[in-house]
Amino acid sequence: MDDEESPRILFLDDDESRAARFLKAHPDAVWVQTADECIRRLSEPWTVVHLDHDLGGEVFVDSSRTDCGMEVVRWLAGEQAGPHLKDALIVVHTHNMNAAGGMVRTLREAGYETIYRP
After folding, report:
1. pLDDT, tens digit, for every residue of 80-113?
2. CA distance between the termini of the chain
3. DSSP letter (8 states) at residue 95
4. Phi and psi of 65, rounded to 5°?
5. Under DSSP, is residue 100 helix (H, G, I), strand (E, B) or coil?
6. DSSP string for residues in 25-90
7. Residue 10 belongs to what H/E stretch?
């Protein structure tokens, strides 16, 4: 990445106030609120991808559901994710610690540089 080039940041979160704070610090970031919307945007190249787990205003969502951040992780770990994302840093920022562990482990096993930052 060029020194002058801004990082491309994708931010998945359903909380409007958290997104507002994030976007204030990162005004060029793209905010998405659903797993489906996030997966659609992952066809583009990103430098950093921030993932929440519990979406839709719910908490402690079962990770087997398709409407949570773990669905994005399953997509990233699958064959459909392109090589354009392999250099992206993935930041798991959910407060759901049980889900976070699975998200981080799956992403690291798939070869992504991943950190957990609740």
Report:
1. 888 899 999 999 999 999 999 999 999 999 999 9
2. 26
3. S
4. -70, 155
5. helix
6. H-TT-EEE-SHHHHHHHTTS--SEEEE-S--TT-SS--TTSSSSHHHHHHHHHSTTS-GGGTT-EE
7. strand 9-12
Provide the pLDDT confidence category of residue 3 given band limits of 50, 70 and 90: very low
Number of neighbours of residue 94 by Cβ within 10 angstroms: 25
Q: Are 50 and 74 in contact (CB under 8 A)?
A: no
Starting at the earlier edge strand, list the strands of the sheet with 48-51. Answer: 30-32, 9-12, 48-51, 89-92, 113-116
Phi then psi for residue 75, to 5 deg, are -65, -45
Instruction: Tell me which residue of 22, 14, 16, 28 sits closest to 72, measured CA to CA.
Output: 14
pLDDT digits (tens, 9 = 90+) for 28-65: 999 999 999 999 999 999 999 999 999 999 999 999 99
Confidence tier at 5 by pLDDT (50, 70, 90): confident
